[in-house]
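Re: export button greyed out
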Amino acid sequence: MPTDSGQATYLEAVGLALDSEMDRDPDVFIIGEDVGQFGGAFKVTKGFLDKFGPRRVVDTPIAETGFTGLAAGAALVGLRPVVEFQFADFISCAFDPIINVLARHHWRTGDPMPVTMRAPFGGRLRAGPTHSQSVESYFANVPGLKIVMPGTPEDAAGLLVSSIRDNNPTLYLENKYLYRRLRASGPLSLEPIPLGVAKVVREGRDVSLITYSAGVSQGLEIAEELDKDGISVEVVDVRTLIPLDVETIVNSVRKTSRAVVLHEAARRMGYGAEIAATIQEEAFWHLDQPVVRIGAKNTPTPTSPPLEDAVIPQPAEIAETLRKVARA
Amino acid sequence: MATRTRRKNEAEDDAPASIPVAERDPELLRRIYEVMVLTRAVEDRMVAMYRGGDLLGSLYTGHWHEAISVGATSALRQDDYVAAIHRDLGAHLYRGMEPWQVMASFMGKATSPTGGRDGTLHYARLDLGFYNLPSHIPANFPVATGMAFAAKYREQDRVCLAFCGDGSTSRADFHEALTLSSVMKLPNVFVIENNQFAYSTPLRMQSNSETFAIKAVAYGIPGVTVDGTDALAVHDAVAEAVARARAGEGPSIVEGVTMRMHGHAEHDPADYVPQEMLEEWSKKDPVQLFENVLIEAGVIDADGAKQVREDARQQAIAARRKALADPMPDPSNVEEGVYAD
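Workaround output, generated via the alternate export path:
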């Protein structure tokens, strides 16, 4: 079982939050491929089977449509399933139950549908076109789903707690590049962090960097660099795409009058387009510059390092864009 | 027609000898009969309503499926779960759905179970233990495994009965649900309503299997094919499967063979169906067949049967009157309830 070392990794934070919710609520169970005896492909659920037993730590055949629909049926009659997709790429196999069963059931019927879907996503692990996808925009156009994308171990814990307690189907996307690269700066709180509340993680004057997931730690590092050149970057962690905290984003842009939106997903029709459009609707007259979006190129994610690095936004490109927008 | 599918390494276990009608619970027989008659009366009324322009969209009926939907549901306890499809009005009525609610659903009325948000065949009520499925059948199959999973999780001896058609068996979610349910030994009963056509696609283009029940062999579970126009044959096969599920022995497949006597929906003239087929099957009206059985066994007499049919007709007329008079929904709250609190 995970224990809090006082410097939990992002991955351990996910496990600690899940463990805590399973301790707290006997209706919470985890289901997915290899989550039991193997402890999960990334080991989030290592030790869970011994602690909670096979009734609540449920290994499945390779059947994403099946076990996502199973989770819906269990939720319908009062359980709180947590579904693990081994890779977010495989979530496409469950597109039908997510869109047609989970997302619209409450609006159609009034019944609650408390299903949390955990999925490791994203690139930079040289895993190639079908093991590196950022899937949030596939789902962001679907009414009835919530989308949660933590960027720190602290948020990974608190937002997972909230997702599990939420009465809606929630897509909780874990950035697998961050799993063992980020550590908490102290003992983790396992108190819920409300969904729909963005966080200004760094105050700044000259330009707002609106981002989420891996963009947060990346953005903070770049902001420190730019600070040396006298450019003051405010970093806003959106944390949840649905619901979106428009107020925090808009307040930041009203202050800095410049905004760059960053994510790892493809730029075209990425969630950044929604954020950019929202900023121009809500804060147009405060803007000194057009809102700029940074995202991946419109190619599948390549495997080979030079190719993948050419597709996914790199620190130099992000820094250069922020510099340009701040000084323009 | 009760052909049975043998499990691997198991001697052929013949169907148990059918219990004579006279030795069965007459109250249960009467209830099955009344609901089958009511199902037919409501659907006949709704066909007229469709033609008269009362309904939105199309109308999906279950003529010749009454013995399957009612026969199967009558083998359950009231607290068992059901994931039924658009041919199974009888299953809903058996549990206590009001005919006017079904009509209201096909009219988009505020009083329909979804308040007009969904409509047509999507009227199932969770308070009656039913899952309200989307149009992507058998999307209800994986959900049915979840309801069964929850029962097992809570150590309740409830089962979940799920229905699908012959066409549904080709889909991935059919296979995944059967795989999950059989591997996890979930208390499911899967009823396949083999009505010869999936929209215009005939059986020979749908499946290369000799029967649909035979698919059970691959999942290592029992599968049985029964005459889907014989309410008692369906009831008995499902009762056996339910007992097995309740005892923790896992799921079963029951295939009921019948005919889709109307089009896929009422807009569909179904001229792809050979006329001889319809003529042949018209002799096998499940409601009439069951009525004959009950009269022969002395459970009801001809006058009693006539009265049941007249009562059902009056119920359908009254249901239409109420549904027609009911209000349309208020669009001002359409954005509410996308998310639960």
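The CA atoms of residues 4 and 14 of chain B lie 7 Å apart. The button fix ships in the next patch.
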